[in-house]
Amino acid sequence: MSPQISTGIEIDIEKRLGEFNLAAKLALPPSGVTALFGRSGAGKTSIVNALAGLLKPDRGRIAAGGEILFDSTRGIDLPPERRRLGYIFQEHRLFPHYSVKGNLLYGGKGNGQISFDAVVTLLGIENLLARRVGELSGGEKQRVAIGRALLANPRLLLMDEPLAALDAARKAEILPFIARLRDELSLPIVYVSHAMEEVVSLADTLALVDDGRIAAIGPVEELTSRLDLRPLTGRFEAGSVLRTVLRGQDATYGLSELAFPGGRLRVPHLALPLGTVLRLRIHARDVVLANAPVAGLSIRNAFSGKVVEISPEPGPLVDLRIDIGTPTEPVMLWARITRRALEDLKLQLGGPVFALVKTVALDRPSPGRPDAETEAS
Amino acid sequence: MLTPLESEALLLSLRVGLVSVIFSLPLSLAVAWLLARREFPGKTLLNGIVHLPLVLPPVVVGFALLVLFGRNGVAGAWLYQVFGLTFAFDWKGAALASAVMAFPLMMRAMRLSLENVDRRLEAAARTLGAGRVKVFATITLPLMSPGILTGAILAFARSVGEFGATITFVSNIPGETRTLPLALYVLTQVPGGDQAAWRLTAISVALAMAALIASELVARRLDRRIRGAG
């Protein structure tokens, strides 16, 4: 469990919901995006509802920014309207009898940092203000819902699967706006999701929720690379998350160089300033392994490393964790190969290996290019 | 065009209907809210009591009102002493009888519309900083407005047509309690009153139709509004 941070959010609650027992204890950092990740029915929404004051825990304590929102022993239970937590629901929950503008202004006019005009511009809803809710598309509705929550001056935003009700195109439309909230407003966000793609692209901290409990909490890169958490993070999503810095541009070939401890990845040109921190996701299936340096291959991104872990799960496919970093700063890469290949290559724990990366997914792109997959060069 | 007798009955009916609707509306809303949103001991009993006028013979309701609200009745004596209010043999008594008879209709329409209000919208409003009262006034009430309107129109129509409880409670006094149905009843009891009875029937039908059409038009507009369309 992470250390208690008094200015962040502390939750330690118990709630019985029929046959389901929620017993969540977690401390969230006071900034950045924290994802609550878990399968449907794991209790993610219940935790967020308890935080917002829409679900009363049987026992426990909730504090945010040093203020106690709920404390069963002291009989404190702040009503939702006094908690100042912006809530964006899975369904937009716009008020149908108000115009878009009426919805936006329902909770307040914003403040110095988050003004009405700024929010409207940020979310690109200038042209929708006079419309009725029934005339909006799904994506537009969710953008208005985000704006409405922002203008109520929340100290924190709660997002309960805000993209789940939208199709892929609409998701791609909303995701950059959420990224902009994170980057431009420095408002802490608690993001509930059961889609690892969204979590990795948005979140800094990951809390894994399983059967009403917090199974683990920590940096996204760390938790997604842990084999013991694989049942919770999902084998389907198998991959590793790398934090890189844009260090060079190769004008001749139109490539950008992304540095991480121990090496550089080359990807097609990114129109971003040098020094930009980018998070990459490399799927285990996009990593090719070799037991010796390979010549005569089109893949340019090859890194030497050593095998740190081999998944014990039975089946024709095995996942290997490869450390391609430096001795002081390990960088973990997952690779998925067949069991046959593992035996043919005679790869062993602690042994040397060469990892070739075919494709990387850019998870922290500029707004408007969410989750772009790009061939590594 | 209308005879003095007819316009007297018509105006009295309108007054009785309006007054009964206006005064029973807040109470009806409160009972609808209790039954739709609250759990409390005696809820089934309350539900039964407010529905009684729907299933009892109107004469029974009229007689009960006479016992309770007559000049010597428990409530009637008190109301007279404290407020100087008289219901017996008075048009206000006719309004009370109509209100009681129409109450279940009005309450049921409101309760139904309240049950259809999306409580998730209310929760969203709370998270936006609105307290319970503001949420009720700005979200719940507007969203149930079609039900309130339907309930009020139904109750009005029922009030205008009320006969049994009225004649039992406040009798049939020209200019005071002789509403359209009572006037019609009188005409059917006298020889040669057929033509006049037909005229009153036509007036009743016209009044009822006007109320229903008006409610339909307003309800349609309200409905469009709360569905967020144009």
Q: What attributes does this structure have?
A:
heterodimer, A: 377 residues, OB fold (Dihydrolipoamide Acetyltransferase, E2P), 2 domains, 6-stranded antiparallel β-sheet, 36% strand, globular, disordered N terminus, B: 230 residues, mainly alpha, MetI-like fold, 11 helices, 79% helix, 0% strand
Give a verbal description of the structure.
The complex is a heterodimer of chains A (about 375) and B (about 230). Chain A has 2 domains: about 10-230, 3-Layer(aba) Sandwich (Rossmann fold), CATH 3.40.50; about 240-375, OB fold (Dihydrolipoamide Acetyltransferase, E2P) (Beta Barrel). In chain A, about 20% of the residues lie in helices and about 35% in strands. Chain A is built from 9 helices and 22 strands. In chain A, a hairpin with a 2-residue loop joins strand 1 (about 10-15) and strand 2 (about 20-30). With about 230 residues, chain B is mainly alpha-helical. Chain B is built from 11 helices and no strands. The interface of A and B includes residues 80 and 149 of A.
Write the layout of secondary structure elements.
The complex is a heterodimer of chains A (377) and B (230).
Chain A: E1 9-17, E2 20-28, E3 33-37, H1 44-52, E4 59-64, E5 67-71, E6 76-77, E7 85-88, H2 100-104, H3 116-123, H4 138-151, E8 156-160, H5 168-185, E9 189-193, H6 196-202, E10 205-210, E11 213-219, H7 220-224, H8 230-233, E12 239-250, E13 255-260, E14 263-268, E15 277-283, E16 287-290, E17 302-310, E18 317-323, E19 332-338, H9 339-345, E20 352-357, E21 359-362, E22 372-375
Parallel strand pairs in A: 3-9, 3-10, 7-8, 8-9
Antiparallel strand pairs in A: 1-2, 1-4, 4-5, 5-6, 10-11, 12-13, 12-15, 13-14, 15-21, 16-20, 17-18, 17-20, 18-19, 21-22
Helix pairs in contact in A: 3-4, 4-5
Chain B: H1 4-37, H2 43-55, H3 58-69, H4 74-83, H5 91-115, H6 119-127, H7 132-143, H8 145-161, H9 164-170, H10 180-189, H11 194-226
